[in-house]
Give the backbone structure.
Amino acid sequence: MIMTMFLQSLSLRKASVFLFFSFLAFPLNVSARPATFLQDFRVTWSDSHIRQIDGGRAIQLVLDQYSGCGFASKAKYLFGRVSMRIKLIPGDSAGTVTAFYMNSDTDAVRDEVDFEFLGNRTGQPYTVQTNIFAHGKGDREQRVNLWFDPAADFHLYTIFWNHQHIVFFVDDVPIRVYKNNEAKGIPFPKLQPMGVYSTLWEADDWATRGGLEKINWSKAPFYAYYKDFDIEGCPVPGPANCASNRGNWWEGATYQALNAMEARKYRWVRMNHMIYDYCADKSRYPTTPPECVAGI
């Protein structure tokens, strides 16, 4: 009880540090920050195109005419927070997709939470597409033009997931909230653990301006960089009571909804930088999907 009250009183940053050093001292029900890429991740696709940097504390993903590449966590997780600092492809990146996502890998009943960074022609804004699959149902795309150059430096991208909601953060700005409205018959991912994945690949049939802008292979190879891999959640397999433990820091009162500052930032993004929302696409959904009117 004392430990729980202490964790809930800390900020998100302090909680992360505390969990990390506690993990070194004695076992906990939650995972802690990995020391290097290979501690918690494995290459899933084209290991020749993923290069470790700084002793494995950072990696470079490569896309060329021959292959893209990908990696995944060694474990799956139920609830918590997953984040990475990513520096995206600079210059003419049209037709490329850099993805960071969680996936239950269960086919027809799949749960999935996606960040997809869609390449652009030089001088155009970078677009991030988010999507959510719950109990096998997806097609919940939203697109936001980033308000900075994500290829100039590293930025923090976070998926936060508890029993109340899923929140996508860009640095400290929430760009999307998917609320748990199971009481209204709306599916919410909560039963299936999900792995953490990332890929860099060619998708010029849809990625940039709906496929109008094709990849320029004369600009290849394309590079994306990752560092500060941070997974804090309930590993599966792991302690059976971890996911249902309301004492986990991410289930604390502070994290049940956006705070006032986060809510202001969220509204600012939606008003000024959102360019597509499936909720408003009457050609696809003549009747507004129920989760779209459920609020945050």
